[in-house]
Write a structure and sequence with these properties.
The structure is a homodimer of 250-residue chains. Chain A is of the alpha+beta class and 250 residues long. Chain A contains five helices and twelve strands. In chain A, β8 and β9 form a beta hairpin. The longest helix of chain A has 25 residues. The first copy, chain A, is globular.
């Protein structure tokens, strides 16, 4: 399972993904699900992926190959993540990569009763006047965009970690607030679903910088994450104990 | 969708269920999903049901018919919820009702691409020396029992409301604490899934009373529930704002 979340903020974008994959509980590994495509100073894009790992790795590979072959002037290979003029076009490039892998693999997957079901979050900024943009890309390669009203996307095991985000984060939140909410959201998820696990890959992108901001891996040795987990558990229990009792006769 | 939860506490049992059913977002109704079977002073049992409403209503009906026909001495109808000698046997009676409805309906359901998939929580106490017991009954009619280590069961849309319970409730919690955690858990769930809705049916059973304790319906006009929602949102935001910042350069 995967849990990943990205925030669309006034000040930029924040991406986070866990790194546990499992093919059954007896086959658990660590894989990076956060991939950066960047040309520092000119563009930065980040892709978060959930679903069948073979499929999502193939999609990332198609995107990388597309960039490598940019000078070969293939008829249908002209557009790639490094020359797309804007983020909408870049999201279309990712959508095309999804469709290419679908064409290649879906029949074989069906033979083995595997669904072609993935979720991708893709966002970033390209020099040229547009603000950062954030997209949720479906298995069909089409996509929706985050907005001020809906300033975040989640993929994978999204439910346990959603309430805390809904209560704390808006488009106007700071990047530090979003990073903190991220960690709490992961904490809630990991407590309830052992197939979501550390380390967490975190990337913060500050608007109009066109390069990576804070890029880090949070693991079980991270002091801040440990302190957050303790703090939050205590704070919730305290708030719960302080909550007024009903005047019901129980 | 349904959300229902029940707690297995040292001091008794607490049951709660929402009452929204929907067959598509354009067909939403209110149905009671909490059913009491009792003989005050001698036994009290409560059933919470999620899944296809036609199936769960049929199961309840089979259980009621079984009680009505108790004096007819049918060969296979001898055991029912009112004469079962203990809670394990009573849970078996419920399991048999599930299997009876399955036999009657599953082929027709399959014809219409509907799965026979339900979840039942069943608990109570019968005079005779045993403490209250709580069971989770599967579509197959078999069941598991709550324990001190796993002191609650949820059915239906369980994920949004699970983290708050995990952090606040143990087998040693009081019934008031469990009722409060119930309301918070429903609040988190209803904020994220509109197919779970008010009113909430709540029933508290205090050990060795063999009759209903607090039995109430919490609707949008309930002052306490409204104050809880406001209090909890404020408390979480306050705790979040007070949470120490990381020393990361973002």
């Amino acid at each position: 399972m995967t849990y990943a979340v990205a925030f669309y903020l006034e000040s930029g974008l924040v991406f986070a993904a866990d790194s546990r994959t499992n093919a059954g509980v007896d086959d658990v590994s660590t894989y990076r699900k956060l991939t950066v495509f960047d040309n520092p100073g000119e563009r930065l894009m980040t892709l978060l992926a959930s679903g069948n790992l073979a499929v999502t790795q193939a999609i990332t590979e198609v995107l990388r190959q597309g960039i490598k072959s940019k000078n070969k002037k293939k008829k249908n290979g002209a557009l790639n993540l490094m020359n797309a003029p804007d983020m909408f076009t870049a999201a279309q490039v990712v959508g095309e990569a999804v469709r290419q892998v679908y064409q290649h693999d879906h029949e074989a997957l069906r033979e083995h009763n595997e669904e072609f079901r993935i979720g991708l979050i893709f966002g970033g900024q390209i020099k040229g006047g547009e603000p950062p943009r954030l997209f949720f890309i479906y298995s069909a390669g089409n996509f929706i965009e985050a907005s001020q009203d809906s300033p975040y996307f989640q993929i994978g095991e999204n439910k346990y970690g959603k309430p805390i985000i809904d209560r704390t984060i808006t488009h106007q939140s700071t990047m530090v607030q979003a990073a903190k909410a991220c960690l709490l959201s992961f904490d809630s998820t990991m407590r309830s679903n052992i197939s979501v696990g550390l380390p967490i890959d975190l990337l913060c992108y500050r608007k109009d910088t066109f390069k990576r901001g804070l890029t880090m891996r949070v693991d079980e040795k991270d002091d801040y994450f440990q302190s957050v987990r303790g703090y939050w558990g205590d704070a919730l229990r305290f708030a719960f104990e302080e909550m007024p009792n009903p005047d019901w006769k129980i």
